[in-house]
Specification:
320 residues; alpha/beta; Rossmann fold; UDP-galactose 4-epimerase, domain 1; 2 domains; six-stranded parallel β-sheet; three-stranded parallel β-sheet; 16 strands; 46% helix; 17% strand; globular
Length: 320
C-alpha cells in the first residue's frame, strides 16, 4: 500500500485531495503537510498532519523518511494573480518547493505528482483546442514557473529516473475550500456570493473563455494518472485535461436561471483581464485520453447544480 505525503495539504486542492486519497489508500497511509500552524491544526482533525516548510530541504527529507513516504503530491504554489504582486517570491516558493521535492524523490525513490496549469500557455498559443505540444510563452511568473516545472519533471525523470507525473489543470471549481489568488477564482467566489448576498461583482471580462474543471474530476485525474501504467505514458509532464469551457457571462446566466433574483456586474482588474485573455479557450486533451484513459464526468449544468446545493448547505450551517 502506498505511503503518500501531500505537501500544501491545506490549499484548495489539498483540502479535498487528502480525504480522496484516504478513501483509496487508507487513513494511516496519507500524511497532510502545510506550512501554516493553524492549517495544520485544522488538517489534524481529519488526518495525520505535520507542519512543513517545503523550502526547508532538511526538514522535508526528515518527514519523508520518518513516515516512509513513497509518493509525494507537491501542491505548493503562489497562484497567477497573487504571483504578479510579488514575482520574486512566487519564483522562490514555487520553484524552491519543486526542486526540493524532486531532489528528495531522487534520493528516496518517491514518485512525484506536481500540478501544472493552463497558465503555462501564453498569448501566442493556439487558443481553440490548444494542442498537447505547442508554443508555451506565458506572461506571468506563475506560468513561467509551471513551464519550468514541466521541464524539470521531464529532466529528473530522464536523468535520474524519478517517476514524475503531472496534469495541466484548468481553473478548478470546488466547494471544499476557497481558492487563493488565481485568475479563475471568480468561478468559485460567485457561488458563495450568489447564495449569501444575491449579487456578485466580477473582475474578469464577461467574454473571457477559460477551461474549467470540477473538483471531483480533478481528483479523479490526479489519482488516475498516478496509477497509470508507466509504459503507456509518453507525456509525463504534463498532460492537457479538459472538462468544460465558458465565460463569466455564461456562468452567471446559468446561476440566474436557478436564482432569478441573482444580479451581477463587472469591475475589471486589468491584470486578471490580461491573464485571462492570454490563456486557452479550451484544451485538446486527446493525449490524456489515449495514454491513461482520461474522461471527465461533470458537465457545466451538473456542476452548477452541485455547487449551489453545497453552498446553500454550508450557508445554512453558518460556515460562511
Amino acid at each position: 500500500m502506498k505511503r503518500i505525503l501531500v505537501v500544501g495539504g491545506g490549499g484548495q486542492i489539498g483540502t479535498e485531495l487528502v480525504p480522496h486519497l484516504q478513501k483509496i489508500y487508507g487513513y494511516d497511509n496519507v500524511i497532510a503537510a502545510d506550512v501554516k500552524p493553524d492549517v495544520v491544526k485544522r488538517l489534524s482533525l481529519t488526518s495525520t498532519a505535520v507542519r512543513l516548510d517545503a523550502l526547508d530541504a532538511d526538514s522535508y527529507a526528515e518527514i519523508v523518511k520518518k513516515y516512509k513516504i513513497d509518493s509525494i503530491y507537491n501542491l505548493v504554489a503562489l497562484l497567477s494573480a497573487t504571483g504578479e504582486k510579488n514575482p520574486r517570491l512566487a519564483w522562490k516558493i514555487n520553484m524552491g518547493a519543486l526542486l526540493n521535492t524532486l531532489n528528495i524523490a531522487g534520493e528516496t525513490g518517491c514518485a512525484v505528482f506536481t500540478p501544472s496549469s493552463i497558465g503555462a500557455f501564453g498569448a501566442n498559443t493556439p487558443h481553440n483546442k490548444t494542442p498537447q505540444d505547442t508554443i508555451m510563452r506565458p506572461n506571468t511568473m506563475y506560468g513561467v514557473c509551471k513551464v519550468s516545472g514541466e521541464l524539470l519533471g521531464d529532466y529528473y525523470n530522464s536523468r535520474f529516473g524519478v517517476d514524475t507525473r503531472s496534469v495541466r489543470f484548468p481553473g478548478i471549481i470546488s466547494n471544499g475550500a476557497m481558492p487563493g489568488g488565481g485568475t479563475t477564482d471568480y468561478a468559485v467566489e460567485v457561488f458563495y456570493k450568489a447564495v449569501k448576498e444575491g449579487r456578485y461583482t466580477c473582475e474578469v471580462p464577461a467574454d473571457a473563455y477559460m477551461d474549467m474543471i470540477y473538483m471531483p474530476d480533478a481528483l479523479k485525474a490526479t489519482t488516475q494518472l498516478m496509477e497509470a501504467d508507466p509504459l503507456r505514458l509518453i507525456h509525463r509532464n504534463s498532460f492537457n485535461i479538459a472538462s468544460m469551457s465558458f465565460t463569466p457571462e455564461q456562468l452567471f446566466r446559468k446561476i440566474k436561471e436557478r436564482i432569478p433574483d441573482f444580479s451581477y456586474d463587472y469591475s475589471i482588474d486589468p491584470v486578471k483581464a490580461q491573464i485571462a485573455y492570454s490563456w486557452p479557450d479550451c484544451l485538446d486533451d486527446s493525449c490524456a485520453r489515449s495514454e491513461w484513459d482520461w474522461k471527465p464526468v461533470w458537465g457545466m449544468d451538473e456542476m452548477v447544480d452541485d455547487m449551489l446545493k453545497a453552498c446553500r448547505r454550508k450557508f445554512a450551517n453558518g460556515e460562511f
